[in-house]
Amino acid sequence: MNKWLRWVAIVLLTSTLSACGYNEFQAKDEGIKAAWSEVVNQYQRRADLIPNLVNTVKGYASHEKETLEAVINARAAATSIKVTPEVLENPQAFQKFQQAQGELSSALSRLMAVAESYPQLKADNLFRDLQSQLEGTENRISVARQRYIKTVEDYNVLARRFPTNLTAKMFGYDVKQNFTVENEKAISNAPAVNFGK
What we know:
By secondary structure, this protein is mainly α. It is built from 8 helices and no strands.
């Protein structure tokens, strides 16, 4: 009878431990760190392209000083943020990182719009190559962000689902930050279209 009770206790303990999700939290946490590293890597790739792009544009459109300075300043702000896995645990730091990257994206968009006004610049092979690399990098950023969002979603579901939410509370596995849309209110309204008569 004692052997049988010990056997039942071992089976119950084993099944309880396997259902607690501790190892799954470890795997998903590592997945988040890997996905985050890829996001940061792609943002760094974009930041590395910017000086060459700015110098190329400067050669053709030097009087667009304000736009060029905006890109340079936005890049400096984006690269000055210390990006570590701990940023994921700090909502304010994560928001600051996301805001800086958004401002850099906005400044780059303005620079590309300015470039449209300079046919010689658009015809320059170096500019076209840099523009193509930048577009490719923006696509990579988008894919890396999507992977990160999905990885965080999986982790957060695990942290909130019963019975693994008990393990999350016990070991401090808090819900992770995710990317948000900066202008959520603005994009929730359909754009007004007026075809004038």
